[in-house]
Every structure is written in structure tokens, then in C-alpha cells.
Amino acid sequence: MDSISDLAFFVQLVKHGSLSALARELGVTPPAVTARLARIEARLGVRLLNRTTRRISVTQEGELYLSHGARLLVDLEELDRMVSSARAIPKGLLRVNATFGFGRRHIAPAVSAFVRRYEEVEVQLTLTDRSINLAEQAYDVGIWFGQVPDSRLVARKIAPNRRFLCASPEYFEKAGMPATPRDLHSHQCIVLRENDAAYGTWHMSRGRKQETIKVRGALSSNDGETALLWALDGHGVLMRSEWDVQAHLRSGALRIALPDWSLPSADIYAVYGERMNVSAKVVAFVDFLADWFARILEHADDAALTQTARSYGD
Q1: Residue-wise pLDDT tens digits, 88-130
Q2: Which residues fall within 8 angstroms of residue 13, CB to CB, at 6 or more apart?
Q3: Number of C-alpha atoms within 13 angstroms, CB side, residue 247?
């Protein structure tokens, strides 16, 4: 017997709770079940069950085999479903959630191209100021930034994304360029509240060194587009993701501060919740987004952006 088949047999045996119960389920004799269990144990070289005529109990090795094996079987079943879904024709209503700024600039154009390719799919794109609970609002896919806190969700990375501290050249001419994170205490900082993170607290790292800076300024907002407009108008230093500010960095309208310091990851994920029943429309849309952003990055001059960031620190 192959390993996967043996694993599925053992999981079923523990689930049924006795050799005779599984034998009835499979339509074989109890000795046949006993013989197969013996062959599995012989192959592995360990005892998986302590058994009597009336009951069974799982050994320590059996618990390990069961716990890891059950997860493996779930993953294999999910893989089968995903492949099968990928072969199906995407159709029906697809409900997508994204944040306002990124949704307008990047997800809306992608949706436009997606529905041209998949004419039987209808897309309802809802933009909000923050990521929302997909299950409660009955969304199929959400576009999230940074780490996905809920392990029950499937999260596929569709694009890398750094965060930068930036301000207009006019602001830095007036206020000076910060040399260390602590210098931000004396700067006007534009504070953005988009999620449940601590308000006005910026976390930075360089190698093993980490800094947590509480910033403040005259302007704050829960809308990223508004905060970006204020930064372009010279009102202070803003923390913003690469996909939001790269055009302004390249044009020189914004400059990067503290380029040698790293900020928390803001990688972009397509998130969905149905691990065991992924529809063809969801598979097609997530695959499409991954390809969409990959092609954008292929044509983006990332090296130029990196060089620009370094030069601003000189």
C-alpha cells in the first residue's frame, strides 16, 4: 500500500474507534483490518495503536502520525479542489473588497481587464478605509496589506510592497533632513489611522537595532489620499507604502527620509476564506491579480527607485 492510502486508512480507523467498526464500514473482515494495520506498523517500525478486542488507544507515535497526517490529507484535498476549480469556467458574482486609495489606482484597472477576459463573471468591488471581516460581509476576496492575522484565511502574496518615510523637498529645506529616527520627535509628522495599530507609533529597524517612535503633528486623517496630498503640499513627514508614492518619488515631488531604516512589511495579499471549497471565479481572479502585478513589476524600474532612495539619504 502507498503511504497516502495507509495514512487515510489510519485516520479512518481512529475516527471509527475500533477495528470491527472500520471493517463494517469498508465491507471487509476485522482480520483484514488488523492485518493492514500490522503492515503499516511494520513499514514505519513503530506501534501506532494499543488494542484489545473491545477498544483501541493511540500511542505517542500514533498521535504524531495522526496529527500531521490529518493536516496533510486536508492539504491534499484542498489541492485537488483547487486544481478542479481551475479547470472549471469562472462565472457568477465575485465580491471583492479593497482599501480606497489602492483599490482605485490598482485593483479597479485590474478588475476592468479581468472581466474582459472572463465575460461570465460579474465583479462587485467595494472600497473601504480598512480591511474588513470577509466572512461577516460575505466577500469572496479581500486585498490586504502586511501580515494576515487570521490563520483560518488563505492569503496569497500578489505583490511585494515596502513602506517609506517621505516628505516634499520644500518641507525638508525648511525643517531639515532627519538623521536618526529620534529626530522625528522634532518634525511635523502626518499621522494616518487606517487600522487598529497604535495611533502615531512608528516602528523602525536597521539590522538588529529597533526603534519605536511616537510621532505627532498638526495634521492627521483616516484617509491615505488626504494624507498624501498634505505631504505633497509640504505639511510634514508621512509613512506610506511604495505603491502609493513611487510615482511622486520618481518625479521628485517627494523625498525619502532615513532610507537605511526599514519599516514594517506592507506586502500585498489576496485573501479568501473557503479553504475547502474555492470557486473557479476566486481561483481565476487571484491568479489574474498575481500575474497583473508581476507584469507591472517587470516594467517598473525598481533599481532606479532604490537608487533614488539611497541618494536622498546622502
Answers
A1: 789 999 999 998 888 998 999 999 999 999 999 999 999 987 7
A2: 19, 22, 33, 37, 49, 56
A3: 5
Instruction: State the burial class of residue 159 (Cβ atoms within 10 Å of its Cβ: 0-12, 13-18, 19+).
Output: buried
**Residue 249 near residue 256, CB atoms below 8 Å:** yes
Rounded CA-CA distance 170/159 in Å is: 32
Beta-carbon count within 10 A of 207 CB: 8
* Site of grid cell 491615505: 224
Helix (H) or strand (E) holding 70: helix 60-87
| In contact, 95 and 271? CB cutoff 8 Å | no
Question: For residue 88, which phi and psi values (nearest 5 degrees)?
Answer: -75, 165
Amino acid at 235: H
Q: If we measure between CA atoms, which residue out of 195, 239, 245, 196 comes closest to residue 217? A: 239
pTM: 0.62
Handedness of CA 285, 286, 291, 293 (dihedral sign): positive
Cα–Cα nearest to 130, from 225, 196, 202:
196
Domains of the chain: 3-86 (1.10.10.10), 90-161+267-298 (3.40.190.10), 163-264 (3.40.190.290)
Angle (CA) 143 103 98, round 5°: 35
